[in-house]
Amino acid sequence: MLQFSLPRSQAPVSMKALCQAAWLWTVAFGNLFVIIIAEGRIFENQALEFFFFAACIGGVAILFAVMSFFYKYVDLSTYNQLQQEGEGDEVSSDETQALILSHDKEQEQKQGREKNEKGNESEF
Q1: Would you say 7 and 19 are in contact if contact means Cβ atoms under 8 Å apart?
Q2: If residue 17 lies in a helix (H) or strand (E), which one and from where to where?
Q3: Comparing C-alpha atoms, which of 50, 55, 25 is closest to residue 37?
Q4: 83 near 61, Cβ under 8 Å?
Q5: Residues 6 or more apart whose Cβ sits within 8 Å of residue 103
Q6: DSSP character for 60?
Q7: 91: buried, middle or exposed (CB in 10 Å: 19+, 13-18, 0-12)?
Q8: pLDDT (tens digit, 0 to 9) for every residue of the chain, 124 residues total?
Q9: R_g (Cα) of the chain, nearest Å
């Protein structure tokens, strides 16, 4: 159920419904694509049609693999904390971006310090 877990963990509350709508929209277009190919009788042999669908799935899997390689995980606990401190007020996207970027920089610095400490320990 990745289609439900990723938006719940990575999207802000205001975007979760949009993520669900986008998921349903892609399923609808995928079904439409299958109907057009299958009913259009593009392939004379049904085995070729299945291989075409398999190639399409393979291409999309490669695309998703590349996208996941460059994906940067976002810890939204700081975003949610900012919204709670604002007592339910809307938080501007600029404030959110600044908060997330500062949190990401802190995480990178922490990871860098941990790597340095591990490097120093291995020298002894």
Answers
A1: yes
A2: helix 16-39
A3: 50
A4: no
A5: 75, 78
A6: H
A7: middle
A8: 556 677 777 777 778 888 888 889 999 999 999 999 999 999 999 999 999 999 999 999 999 999 989 988 777 666 666 666 664 445 555 666 666 667 677 777 887 777 777 766 655 5
A9: 22
